[in-house]
Amino acid sequence: MTAMPRPLLYTLLLGAIAVLSLFSLAVGKVWIPWSAWRTLGDDPSWIIILELRLPRTILGIMVGVALGISGAVLQGYTRNPLADPTVLGVSSMASFGAVLTLYLGVAGTMPWVLPVGAMAGAALGVVILLALAGATSSILTFILAGAILQIVATAGVSLALNLAPNPWAVNEIVNWMMGSLADRSVDDVRMAFPFIVAGCIMLGFTARALDALTLGETGALSLGVRLNVVRVLIAVGVAMAAGASVAVTGAIGFVGLVAPHLLRPLVGARPGALILPSGLAGAVIVLAADIVVRLMPSVAEVKLGVAMAALGGPFFLLLLVKMRRRVA
């Protein structure tokens, strides 16, 4: 497929984000009528818009951008089309770090501890994976490494649930682990925003190095790429972007896997050129999925993390089948 002109691609993605943002502000259990939009704040519905829908929409965009960019950078660096914060266990390690703060009870008294715990867990997962990437780019190696991280993180979360001091702590951890944008406030936006922005900026600086790495590590070194600096940027950037996302919304998976694959045919073979479009596509995916879960005819709202897992699981299987046919 021929690469789409960059201005047209950005226009389409930004237009989709704008339209979905308007829908996100309007739809839900309580629909905002057209008459409320014309009153400019006089209608009581504006309380719902400003206090509930607006933070939810902004977080959806932020988290989608963070996970989409993280997935594109990890795939570009490892030369692995299956790399993603969720598939490789980075999001699970971030969840484990955050759950520890909930289990110990420090997140309630010091809210800043939760994002720190999530980012520390994500950083540990990224460091382990990038250490493996320095020796091999085998897809099997990364899948196995991700599976190990998933098992370790899941075991840690299960232990915290098993030893939780009361049922309320168990309920809090379980609800948070399923991932959701519901009932988030402006405080959550303020807490995650600086970390996500800083992490995405750091990951954006790796674009030239990712393009050079298509020639292999030796070729990248001959072009003047400092791989040790690139590894640090990726480790810290993914930890901040994905970790802060997990800290405020819980585990929302497969965005970083799906977004780059959808955009790669439209962007071309350059991994660096895929970073920003993947972030925008991630925002589109998260906003669209969040609107769908709100419109589902159920008594309780389906968690966004559950919906994304239902979407991402078959997508991951399809990628594996396509890769197997290509190898055969």
CATH class descriptor: Mainly Alpha
For the biggest sheet, the summary is: none
The CATH architecture classification is: Orthogonal Bundle
Briefly note the CATH topology name: ABC transporter involved in vitamin B12 uptake, BtuC
- What structural category characterises the helix and strand content? mainly alpha
Please tell me about this protein's structure:
There is one protein chain. This protein has a single domain (60-327), classed as Orthogonal Bundle (ABC transporter involved in vitamin B12 uptake, BtuC). The longest helix is centred in the N-terminal third of the chain and has 34 residues, at 45-78. Helix content is 76%, strand content 0%. It is built from 15 helices and no strands. It is globular.
Can you tag this structure with a few keywords?
328 residues; mainly alpha; ABC transporter involved in vitamin B12 uptake, BtuC; globular
